Input
Amino acid sequence: MEQSGTSALLQGAVQDLASGVVSALRGGGHPRVVLPADTGGAAGELALAAVRVLGADAMLPSVLLRTPPDPAEAAVFRKAVEAHPPRPDAALSVRWSHWGMARTLRRIDPSSPAGPPDEPGTGALDEADWQSLTRQLAVLAPLALPGEDCAVSRAAVRRPVDVARGFVRAVRRRDWRQAAGAGRWLTLLPGVPDTLGLVSGLDFVELMGGQDPLVALHVQAARLMRTGAPV
Amino acid sequence: MRSDQKVLEELTAIQAADIEAALDPAETDGVYRDSRECAALALAGGSGGLLLSPPAPRPKKG
Output
């Protein structure tokens, strides 16, 4: 399906942002500042929307590498959270993505209220078949963080074998984004079958789809979490 | 004639629908592996038993 000009611009801005996050996670010379400055105008609006789409992962280097965020960066992140709240009838992934950003904001900004924000419902996630569960979890991969609990992560913990099946399915379908997101979740789940070969599977996902910054981001996050990043 | 800046502003007038579409993408159509990728997977493999097992049957036509 053909993308609108706006959608294409937004996707491009998200990819650029994701590339910056990957570079920061790899320690590519700029470990902290990833987000664009708050420039205002059309370009600023596009940048905020890109931050909103990338979600909590926009601050992933600070969270995973345990470095204090640049204040200007935190301000842009906050502005994105405040500028794009989900509609009440928005899809599950839209509401949880915003919740994840709010949670991250509270973690990185001492002036925010203490404790996690109220969780949205999980809808039919618990009853979803393994294909739908994996698709939804992959979209919500920014919620996959060590030591961070929420209803979505609890749903994933209850079904490691289903997520593993979904990972294999995604690899076979060459859906590298879904495979990378599912693999990131699997890195955190207990009870994943050893026969899955998750580590080599993620290497393969990176080999085949790593030119997509969103794929590279999840693979790199999974590696950092697996090797015990200081979180 | 509109200025480039005007065109840019119209193009970047991000709608909530664009953001929601990006956050809730439909699943992409599946594409099955070819032998080149199977070979790469075998090289990257090791103990990846499930990944290296035979591919799932393709849907029957008709």
Remarks:
- Chain B has a mean pLDDT of 66.
- The CA atoms of residues 28 and 34 of chain B lie 18 Å apart.
- Chain B has three helices and no strands.
